[in-house]
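Q: What changes when succinic acid is included in the input?
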Amino acid sequence: MPLPPPSLLLNVIALGPKAAAATRRKATSLTLCRMASTANFAKVWGLKDQSLIKTQGYIDGKWVDAKEGGTILVTSEYPATDEALGSVPEMGLAETKSAIAAAAKAFETWGKTTAKSRHDILMKFYGLMQEHHEDLGKIITLENGKTLTEGKGENAYSSSFIEWYAEEAVRTYGEHIPSPFTNIRNVVIKQPVGVVRKCSSIMTPWNFPSAMITRKLGAALAAGCTTVIKPPPETPFSALALAELSRRAGVPDGVINIVTTQKNVLEVGREMCESKTVKKVSFTGSTAVAKTLYEMSASTLKKVSIEAGGNAPFIVFDDADIDAAVEGAIACKFRGSGQTCVCANRIYVQSSVYADFASRLAEKVSAFKVGNGLDEKTTHGPLIHEKAVSKVKRHVDDAVSRGAQVLVGGQSLPSPGTFYVPTVLADVPAEALLNTEETFGPVAALTKFETEEEVIALANNTDVGLAGYFYSRDVGRVWRVAEALEVGMVGTNTGLISHATIPFGGVKESGLGREGGHGIEEYMNQKLIAFGGI
Ligand code: SIN
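A: The predicted holo structure follows.
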């Protein structure tokens, strides 16, 4: 069975022998963790403002434990060492219902605030994220494993969504539509999804513990919606720190609620999708989980936004600037150690430049330094957990068994930590798992092609379509290929496309709706008011 990409629902469902071993390790460290005080955790975190670390859920403006008292231990099993970071409550259906009720109640006032006052609160929230840049970056690094440069980079990216949506809040203009009748005037206004006692729910992955929340939360708050957020069990602390900063910024009680869960994830997810009170679901994660949530949401026909898996093609044509293409491939493929939905997954290189591109890429990748994200020399951190390492191993072994050549890497590192050495493989056949599934790891899989038609057919031969990239200096080709790729986002002569201002999202089985850009629309309904009797 193919292992899914970042998904907290399937994390619990698909327990294999490795995961079982990890669970046993967790149980041992759970005992140790219970003996440790918060002060011990404070040492591990080493933040300037230790009060950003919250170890409880957040419902109706209060920090709360699970009703049944269970906890989820969050350890650096995921990042580079085996230190315990802390625990958060194992919440379930009861807490989810309380959170939804609190959000619905808060909507009665938040939904009626002016766009200007929401703008002002969001700008304050943005300012606090800037002020606590170092700490928030470090929290991301400690719980996710990415390097501190990437952790701080994510905080900058994450806060940019809050800033962007603050500015969008005041521009949710309506419309006047000329009527065919002399005695009617048609006006369209925009209102937050739901009218009374309603809210939206947000479910996010571990690969961007902060930015995948603010990309949704910023839009929801700016539109006047209230929210229930379910962060992933691997990286709950960034979500909780955001809740704390939102409170300091003046976001009223009940507007943001956070339910932490791991083993109860199915019942929590179901309630977030099936509750009649919830009018909007936004999810980032695997396509498999997205389909389940979409099906659950159908029972109440609610608005759904989904950013699901990708299998991005990265194409290098023979007229490309090869140095730029190598740099672009590195940025695109190895960001977050290959654990992003928009990472290049399949690298197609035209035959006449193939050997040159492969050797330049291999040389650069062999200079990477894997290690603890907090170490300044580290260029690439670990994978999120052992299951992720097993998937990468399976994909590399499969490609090698089908004749691929290992140019760099090709193996995992012994514990502690869950590392896979950044890898470049040449001559990966089209039918290899590396080309047919999303790998979600640090492996550049190179495949040779001859013609533009051939590579477009190869690139589009997948059920998903999130991002696609290509390098070419021929302007005619740039237009042709950009139009032909079946994806929601194309990078031409760049390996990085992500920004708060762009419409981020996919086609085919990569999802529905767009985030960033005009994504505030996903949290609003248009309402026609026809003025008659004029
Ligand atoms: C993702 O991996 O889901 C998001 C990546 C991005 O925002 O660039």
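Observations recorded in class: Confidence is low (pLDDT under 50) at residues 1-39.
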